[in-house]
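This follows on from our talk about sequence and fold. I would like you to pick a protein and set down its sequence and fold. Go ahead and set the record down below:
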Amino acid sequence: SASQGKPNEAHSDFLKINTIANHVANEPFQIPRMTACAINVIGSQKAADLATAFPQVPVYKKSLEAFINKWPATDAKTEYGNEIFFIKTILDHAEDREFYAQRIGVPESDMEGSLTQGSKAQLIQAKADILKHYRTSIAAYDLPLAEANAQFMSAHVEMKKSFNAFPIAKNAYFSLQFGDLTVASRYVGSVKKMQFQAVLRAINARTADGKFPENLDLSDLLIPYDNVPLNYSSDGTIFSINAPLAAVSEDSEPHDNSITFPRNKVQ
């Protein structure tokens, strides 16, 4: 619609994209939550492209504001719902060869002999222990990122012990589970939202002759866990918002996470 000179219709399309992102975010699974964030980022990028290229068309700025104001929310307990359900399912089928072969894809060669070494009492205890370890994982959200991931990994080590009497279930779960993606999606999603808040400020601070400010106060936009502000730089014609994401573990390196506008010429 924007390419056809119809900004109001483009704005309506942007609102629909944001609505789709929030609908996807309502799914109690990790991957849909990450997908919702990606949808909103793509929509925000295009709205920012148009808002920076056509300052005389205020509706594009309204589109960017809509994406920011209705950014898909994250919720640890909801996102963990799929893994809790999956754990319960594979343990409930601890002796079901057909289930593991057809639903999980476990090779027949891996199911020789008894599928379980545990009793019914051990099965109940395993479920209780696993739930306890997931609660520990959820509590990691209140910690700095590196500590959060360390607590995640520690909880998963303990969780593996709970599966020891159920080797096929253990192998099935730990070959498919998603580790610390929930922490990662919340972390990156929050940073992306703040970056577009900064983009909107730069657009609002543009001077009458179309220049972006050389400096912009972003001291209130603090990166989650790291508690440091975003970085802004501009030569007047283009600007960049950098989120210096910290290393998530001792073995990894910090990485650049900048966005720059205008990104390219918008037709």
